[in-house]
Design goal:
The protein is mostly helical. It has helices at residues 2-16, 18-74, 79-98, 106-109, 112-116, 123-132, 138-150, 157-164, 178-203, 210-218, 227-232, 244-271, 287-303, 318-325, 327-345, 351-354, 358-382, and strands spanning 165-166, 169-170. Strands 1-2 form a two-stranded antiparallel sheet.
Length: 383
């Protein structure tokens, strides 16, 4: 009843002052159009900065570090070389975890994420392969190479981790068999190939090193899409993002996807007893660092850049835009983000031995709170 009465009164006022009402309406339309254009222009800057300073920069570093890791493993012949490979694995691993706030696009569309980052590693299958095949034989090598290139639980970061780490420390080089050494070379080469594909898909094939272009051409894996260009041109013909606002909201959605995965899956599965085998990076004792870097990927995406410190966002970043236009929601996100990082850092290590500790629950709660603040920020951007 109250709504009906209010609507009737508005209609009466409109008919009483038709010319005045029409004039205000025209002004409102002009203001709305101007505001919409200004918002689109500002968010186009945000989306461009996100692509160039965060996504492409992160994937380029991933490709560079995977290339270095492959080179070390290719020539690995001593304990010192193995220890160098372990350190390089951690460096490349951080690059990858820093990318998980933007798994949309090439990482998910081309199946790269599940290919290089599925766990737990198939130890039983691995042991059977090591016992069954002679990897000095080209035919057997081809079988293993095919499995590495086409499966999920038998390749990627966690395959390398299992071979070169034990209980959080570099494995003894003398304990590696010839078959294991060949396997690591195959996996490292495949990991580098995947990283090259990610870089090319976001930077554009013409904007990567010529050797990487040639590698992708030789393997017939040149990306069919140019995600970076599409994202920068959100709202224009040819982009899957229908507006600049859709692009900006995608940045937040990518953050929320990984926040949910860390809270519910990476920490929660073991902490709640749903699956105590579902523990990321258990052999390197790198789980908590993985979780922390995943949330840092959100900070990079929101604040701009790829190695953000402090709480001041880069000019042109989504958080800088929100600071200016939605300060209440932005302030809440920034505080919740720092709290989540703090709670993860305070988790009892190593996670694989302490996944029932109360500190894990505290981290989950903080991640849930962060997710809620991002919901509110999304609604503010949509208005």
């Amino acid at each position: 009843m109250k709504k009906t009465l209010k609507y009737a009164l508005l209609l009466t006022a409109a008919f009483a002052l038709p010319m005045s009402f029409a004039s205000c309406s025209d002004d409102d339309d002009d203001n709305n159009a101007n505001n919409s254009t200004a918002k689109a222009d500002a968010l186009n800057v945000v989306n461009k900065q996100f692509v160039e300073s965060t996504v492409v920069a992160t994937y380029k570093k991933l490709a560079d570090d995977c290339e270095a890791l492959q080179a070390t493993i290719e020539g690995m012949n001593s304990q010192a070389a193995l220890e160098k490979a372990c350190q390089q694995w951690k460096t490349a691993r951080q690059d990858w975890e820093w990318s998980e706030a933007f798994l949309f696009g090439a990482a998910s569309g081309y199946g790269i994420d599940p290919h290089i980052d599925t766990w737990p590693f198939e130890v039983t299958v691995f042991n059977s392969y090591m016992a069954k095949f002679d990897l000095t034989n080209e035919a057997d090598q081809a079988i293993v190479d095919h499995s590495v290139a086409t499966t999920q639980n038998f390749t990627g970061f966690h395959a390398l981790e299992y071979v070169i780490f034990r209980n959080g420390q570099p494995r003894q080089f003398a304990a590696l068999t010839a078959n294991e050494l060949y396997f690591t070379k195959s996996v490292a080469a495949d990991l580098y190939l995947s990283a090259c594909r990610l870089e090319a898909a976001w930077a554009g094939i013409d904007n990567v090193k010529s050797a990487r272009r040639q590698l992708l051409e030789d393997e017939e894996l040149v990306p069919e899409d140019y995600f970076g260009n599409e994202f920068i041109n959100a709202g224009k013909a040819g982009s899957r993002w229908k507006s600049a606002t859709d692009g900006a909201i995608q940045i937040i959605a990518g953050c929320q996807d990984i926040i949910g995965e860390v809270a519910e899956g990476k920490i929660g599965s073991a902490y709640h007893g749903d699956d105590t085998n579902y523990i990321e990076s258990p052999h390197a004792y790198n789980s908590i660092q993985d979780f922390y870097d995943n949330i840092m990927s959100c900070k990079h995406a929101l604040y701009g850049g790829m190695n953000v410190s402090g709480t001041t966002p880069a000019s042109g970043s989504l958080m800088a835009y929100c600071d200016a236009n939605h300060p209440k929601e932005a302030t809440a996100v920034k505080a919740a983000l720092e709290e989540a990082l703090s709670k993860i850092k305070a988790m009892k290590a190593p996670f694989v031995l302490n996944y029932t500790d109360a500190s894990c629950g505290a981290a989950i709660d903080a991640l849930d709170a962060l997710d809620e603040t991002l919901d509110k920020l999304t609604k503010a951007l949509e208005d």
